[in-house]
């Protein structure tokens, strides 16, 4: 016989696990107090369902790309070219797709901030020439 600090027997423990299985698998909150339930995602939360934000994902990803770049680069990194930025992203363990996106940029280009870099990445990710007026 096992003697420990358990308040319940092994049989009662298994019985309680069986009773709770339906609640745990139902996908509904198991708490009775509403204030104790997990909070749902807000409308303006970044979409992370499909993994990290990467260049070339679509025309409306500029804002999310800028956020991802800002997470991985500091203000002290700028102004810099694609090579320096690539090294900084690798040091910060950024997603590989961000580093790969920098390889499509002109080697002699210089970027003063995250916004300029994000714009350049969105333009290089599109097929065809850049949009008129994009800088």
Give a short summary of the structure.
The chain is mainly alpha-helical and 135 residues long. It has 5 helices and no strands.
The average pLDDT is 76
Largest sheet: none
Bulk shape:
elongated
Order of helices and strands: HHHHH
Helix content range of the residues, please? 40-55%
Q: What share of the residues does DSSP label as strand, in percent?
A: under 5%
Helix tally equals: 5
The tally of strands reads 0
- Rg is 25 Å
Low-confidence stretches: 127-135
- Determine the structural class based on helices, strands and strand pairing: mainly alpha
End-to-end separation: 76 Å
What does this structure look like?
By secondary structure, the protein is mostly helical. It has five helices and no strands. It is elongated. The C terminus is likely disordered.
List keywords for this structure.
135 residues, 41% helix, mainly alpha, elongated
SSE map:
Blueprint: H1 10-25, H2 62-72, H3 82-91, H4 96-102, H5 114-125
């Amino acid at each position: 016989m096992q003697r420990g600090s358990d308040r319940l027997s092994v049989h009662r423990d298994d019985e309680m696990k069986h009773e709770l299985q339906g609640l745990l698998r139902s996908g509904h909150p198991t708490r009775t107090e509403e204030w104790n339930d997990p909070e749902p995602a807000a409308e303006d939360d970044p979409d992370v369902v499909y993994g990290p934000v990467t260049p070339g994902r679509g025309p409306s990803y500029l804002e999310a790309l800028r956020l991802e770049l800002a997470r991985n680069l500091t203000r002290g990194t700028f102004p810099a070219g694609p090579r320096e930025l690539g090294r900084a992203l690798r040091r910060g363990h950024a997603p590989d797709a961000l580093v790969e996106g920098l390889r499509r940029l002109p080697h002699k280009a210089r970027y003063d901030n995250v916004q300029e870099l994000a714009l350049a990445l969105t333009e290089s990710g599109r097929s065809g020439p850049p949009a008129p007026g994009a800088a």
